[in-house]
Specification:
Layout lengths: L1 H29 L6 H13 L4 H11 L4 H10 L5 H17 L4 H44 L3 H12 L3 H13 L8 H11 L1 H15 L2 H10 L5 H6 L6 H13 L3 H14 L3 H13 L3 H14 L3 H13 L3 H14 L1 H9 L5 H4 L7 H9 L15 H21 L5 E2 L6 E2 L14 H7 L7 H28 L3 H5 L3 H23 L10 H27 L4
Antiparallel strand pairs: 1-2
Helix pairs in contact: 2-3, 3-4, 4-5, 6-8, 6-10, 6-26, 7-8, 8-9, 8-22, 9-22, 11-13, 13-14, 14-15, 15-16, 16-17, 17-18, 18-19, 23-24, 24-27, 26-27
Amino acid sequence: MRKLVVLILFAICVFPWLSFGDEVHEHQLNSGIKNANIHSHLLIEESKVRTSFRDNLLKKALLYSPDLPAVYFELSKAHLSLSPERIIDSIYYLFEGIAAYSRNFWWSFTLAGSLFFSLVFSFILSIACIAIIRLMTDLSLISHDILEKKSKMFILVILILLSGLSPLLLCAGLLIILGLYMKKFDKSIVYFYLTILVLSPLIFKTATFFVHVSSSGAIKAIVQVNESAGNNYALSALRNADDPEGIFSYALALKREGYYSEAITVYNRLIQLKRDPRAHINLGNVFVGLSSFDEATDYYFKAIEMEKLSSAYYNLSQLSRETFDFVKGNEYFQSAVAIDRNKVADYRTMYGRHPNRLVVDEQLTFNDLWRYVFDQTPETSTFGLMIIPVFLMTFISIGLLASFFFLDRSLKNRAYRCRRCDAILCPECEKRVKWRELCSQCYRSLVKIKELDVKDRVSRLQHIQKIQQKRSTFLKILSFMLPGSALIFRGRILHGFFFLWPFLFFVFVPICNIFLSTGILQFSRGFVEFVAILCAILIYFISNLITRKRIAKGWL
């Protein structure tokens, strides 16, 4: 029953677009709505079915939503062919789609948030994978050292107790212990992770910012109005707004929907609150809707006294022509063109006889919207990942950095494995000289050949070969499961990390992209997801190719 109701509501919303698309679009332009995103997305879906009309449908979608990146990316895919001319068109639309991110707040916000969360999640998961993989080989070394010297247990207990404060510190504690058995350059992974924990308050603050903005109804309403995508939501969501941006957007929605008396009251309140020439221009536009051209002209001149804006001169030129003063109209128009030719060209694309199209409104710019949302970040949240205040994480992480540095230099005798047979060796109980991390038996079978009987030497070599064959099979399986994991298992931790982290990053991008998507309908950002998945697949195959080559040559 619920599904049926949803389908009926969807049909009620969509049917007018499918049947009377041009008429509805004209009506929306009269309401100041330049980006009819829902209609454009419906046309994109229709173009996938009616492939013979694909170009025309997508160009129509572009006309209805010139600031929607999805349309440009679909046009880029539609023009992709072996024809040189269409390839050039495809590249053109691709770059136009990327450029459209700078005109569409939610698309740029979603992309920035997806990249941020993907970086953070993939990094933490990469470190966790390193800890788990290395525990498979180093746990026996840790146990051996503790049995040899019971005092080392004290270090383990302290780190585990400290790790109980947060899963992030648990991972740090494990990494510090495992880092003692890493090679010199691989220890940089430990220092890198602990440095990131030092910066964790900033990371949590940024994460809080993205979560808060994506769930804020007021911000959605402000963006919708100022990107000319809708007015009705702002009329309810911004009714009690008390900040200049919210008041400005609410007044603009009132004006566009024809509530002129209410819009005048709200604009006068805004003018008393903040000196803004854009508010004077929009208030002048309200009087245009009331056919009070003289009062509108006065507000345009007041705006010009504050700042020479192309919209003020353009609106003056429109009013002059409406009163048949074409000389003044041309003068004002030339002044508008001299200030910003591109904006005037955009104004002309919206031209119509309706008051909302005869003159143009000032809106919060793309940069204004970003500045506004940056000022709206609430108190930093830790999302339940720690039981201590977030600022304490910095001091604890600095202490862990110092502890690891001290332990790495003070603990000299640490167990290690024979490079050929994986036998555990320890300077405390193995008095022989360590030569290329080989046990005494492997050392004799390779170097001191004369000290071994031929039969014993052959038997030893066969034993080593069996071990290495099992190891190679295991490494191939591990590499198949996760890029870089085989390198990490064999102690090439830094090399493995540079495969593992990028792979997980590109895997997380589509997931985070969906998580941060906003709007009535969760439309797909197919282009970003396609690029991310393609990069993940590329890294997977490159990692497997390099790892299997190393295994075949016996380098792992």
